[in-house]
Write a structure and sequence with these properties.
The complex is a heterodimer.
Chain A lengths: L6 E2 L10 H11 L12 H21 L6 E4 L2 H15 L6 E5 L4 H12 L3 E5 L9 H7 L4 E5 L13 H10 L3 E5 L18 E5 L10 E5 L27 H36 L5 E3 L10 E6 L4 H7 L3 E2 L15 H5 L4 H5 L1 E5 L6 H20 L2 H7 L13
Parallel strand pairs in A: 1-11, 3-4, 3-5, 5-6, 6-7
Antiparallel strand pairs in A: 2-8, 7-8, 9-10, 10-12
Chain B lengths: L2 E2 L10 H12 L9 H21 L6 E4 L2 H13 L6 E5 L4 H9 L6 E5 L9 H7 L4 E5 L13 H9 L5 E4 L11 H7 L3 E5 L10 E5 L25 H12 L5 H18 L3 E2 L10 E5 L5 H10 L2 E2 L15 H5 L4 H5 L2 E4 L6 H25 L1
Parallel strand pairs in B: 1-11, 3-4, 3-5, 5-6, 6-7
Antiparallel strand pairs in B: 2-8, 7-8, 9-10, 10-12
Classes of the chains: A alpha/beta, B alpha/beta.
Amino acid sequence: MTVHTPIYLDYSATTPVDKRVAEAMIPYLTEMFGNPASRSHSFGWDADDAVENARAQVAALVNCDPKEIVWTSGATESDNLAIKGAANFYSGKGKHIITVQTEHKAVIDPFRELERQGFEATYLEPETNGLVTLEKFKAAIRPDTIFASVMLVNNEIGVIQDIAGIGAICREHGIIFHVDAAQATGKVEIDLEKLPVDLMSFSAHKTYGPKGIGALYVRRKPRVRLEAQMHGGGHERGMRSGTLPTHQIVGMGEAFRIAKEEMELENARIRRLRDRLLAGLKDIEEVYVNGDLKQRVPHNLNISFNYVEGESLIMAVKDIAVSSGSACTSASLEPSYVLRALGRSDELAHSSIRFSIGRYTTEEEIDYTIALMKSKITKLRELSPLWEMYKEGVDISKVEWAAH
Amino acid sequence: MAAYFDYNATSPLDPRVLQAMLPYMEQATNASSRHSFGRHARQAVELAREQVALAVGAHATQVLFTSGGTEADNLAIQGLAAALKPSQIVVSAIEHPAVMKTAQMMRRQGWQLRVAAVDANGLVDTDDFRAALQVPTGLISVMLANNETGVIQDVATLAGLAKNQRVPFHTDAVQCLGKMKLDFTALNASGVQAMSVSAHKIGGPQGMGALVFDKRLDISPLQHGGGQEKGLRGGSENVAAIVGFGAACELLDLSSTEQMKEMREILEKGIHDLGGVIFGEHAARLSNTSFFAFPDVDGETLVMALDRANFAVASGSACSSDSTDPSPVLLAMGVDAKMAQGAVRVSLGKGNNVQEVREFLQALQGQLVRMKQFMAMAA
C-alpha cells in the first residue's frame, strides 16, 4: 500500500493551505508588501486592490455584498466581535441571549463573558442527533431576547442546523441572529441573500486558506450595528482596527474562490470516501455514530467505540492524525461537551474519534484507516476487562464498583 | 521600481523569513492538536516565542502572540482595565490611534481619560505627567517611540514616577523593535509592565504581534474561546506568522541603525538646505525616521508628486492617512495646523541606500520648484 503515515484525517481542526492559495499569497509577501492603509503610494494602492479583490471573492462564495465583509484575525475573533459587539450594542432593548450547548468555545466563552457582564443566557440542549428543533428554539425566546447564535456546521459531529428556520423565527421576534460558519464554507452552500442571518463568522484555515485570517459578515439591509472590540486606526469602517495582513487576506480570497468553483465535485468525492469509511467501520461491534447522518456534511464522521479506553485508543491509532474532541479543547482530558450534550455517557464520549476528510484524502488512506481501526479496536478490547464482562453478558451500567 | 521610504508603515518581508514560514503555510498545523502534526506546530510556536523574547529582552513566558500591534495595545488597555475599578487612565497626547482610541473608549466603562501634554520636541512634559498622577490613576500608556516623528520617550523615567503608586504602565513599542535596543527586563525594573510589538515593522509578516508583560499583571482576555495563549487569547494560533515573527526577530541586526543615521543625516541636511522644518529634530529619535514640512507647501500634494517620481513616502501615519486632517501628533507638539498639513514622513529601512536618498533630494527639490511655480501662477 502506498500510504504515508501519519495519515491526516483532521481537516476540521485545520486544513493544509492549497498550493494555489500559497502561490497567490507569495507575491504579497515579497514585492507587493505595502500596507493597504497607505494612501500615498502605489505599494499601498496595490495592497488595497488585492484586499478588495479578496473581499469580493469571499462575498461571492456566500452571496453577499463585499461591503458586508469585515476582515478579522480568524473565526474566534469574528465570533467575539459578533456576539459581544451586537449584544452590547442592542443591550438597551434587552439582556437575554440564546445559543446552543454544542457551539464552539469561541461562541460559548463570549456568552459566558456576557453573563459575567449581566446578560442572561440560555444554552439550548440539542436533540440526541445534535440538531436543535425549531419548537425548542421558539420556546426559549423571551420578550427581552435580543440576540441568538447558532452554528451552521458543528465542528465535532458535522451536523447542519436549520439556519433558515431559526433565522426566520429570529426575524419574526426582532432578534439579531449570528451564525458561526467556520466549518461550513466550501462544504454547504451559503446564500446570504436568501438566509435570514444578520452576522456570520468565517475562517480561512478550515477551507484551505491560511491561519490567522477570518471574516465577519455584517448585514447592511436591514443594517446590523456592532460595538467595535478593537480600536485604533479605524480600519474596516471602524468595526475592526489594525493593519490588514494583505497576504493572509489574498490567501483567504483565493481559498474561497477555489471553494466556490470546486465544492460540488469535491463534496461528491468526499462523500464517497466518507461512505466508504463508514461502511468499513460500522460492522465493528458496539460502535455508535455521533450526530445525525443525513443532515450532516460529508466531511465528518464521529464514532464512539464502546469498551475501549479513550486515551489508549488515541495512542493506538497514532498512524492517523485525528481528534478525540475539538482541537481547541483537546489539551484537556474532559470528555467532549458536545457529545455529552447529545446524551452520550462519559465513556462513549471519551472513546470517540472524529475523522474529518478533506481535499487530499485518498481511497488508499481510507482503506488503511479502516484496517488499522479494526485491528486496533480488536486488540484493545482483548485487553479490556469491560469488553470481557460485556461479552459475558454483564450489564456494566449496573455494576457497583468498589471504592478505592 | 519605486524607492520605498515608508518602513514605519510596513516593511517588506525578509526572504529568509519567508523561507522559514513556507513549511508552516503549506502544512496542516493546528498547534492545539495533539497528533504529530499538531505537536510539530506547537514546537515551532514555542521556539518563535523564545526568539521574540530574546529580541525584546524578556522571558518567553512573558510573550503573548496577538494579531498585531493594535490587538496588543487593545489587550493591554482593555485587558488591564477589566480587572480594575474604573478610575483615571493617563496616555500621552501623541499615542497611536490603537492606544488613543482605545483609551477614549474606556470612558464608556466609567474611566476618566487624562491626556498628558508633550513639548515642542514631542517629549512628554514631565510636569504635566506628574500633575496627571495627582488624581488617582489606574492605568498608564505612553509610547516608547512615535510612529510619525520617531521621537523616543524616556519611558523609564515616566514609569518611575508612577511606580510608587503601583499603577500598571504600558508602552507601545511597535516602532522600536529592530530600530533601537529593547530590553523589557530593564524597562520592567523601572516600572513598565507591558509592551506591544509588531512583526510587520521588522521584516516579519503582517497580522502578527505580541504583548510582552509582567506576569504579575492581572490581564483579562479580549478574545474568548479555545483557551489558547494560556487562556489570554482564544483562537487557533497563526503558526506560519508566529514562526515568521520569530525568524524576523532572530535576524534583527541593530548595527544597521548606524547606516540609517548616516542616510538620514544626508537627507536632513538636504531638507534644511531646501528650507524645510524637521519635527522633533532636537529630541532623541529613531535613526530611520524623518518627519518634515516646507512652509506653504501642501503635504498631500507633495507626497503625490513624489509618488509619481517613484518615491513612496507617507503624509502621516498610515493608519490615519485616509483622512486629510493635520497630524494630531504635530498639533500636540504645538505646530500650527497649516504647517502640520504639509508634513511628509520618510522612514528608512534596510532596503535603502545613500544613492536613493540623494535621488530623493533631487526629486524633492524639483517638485518644490514646480509646486512653487504653480502657486505663483495661481496667486
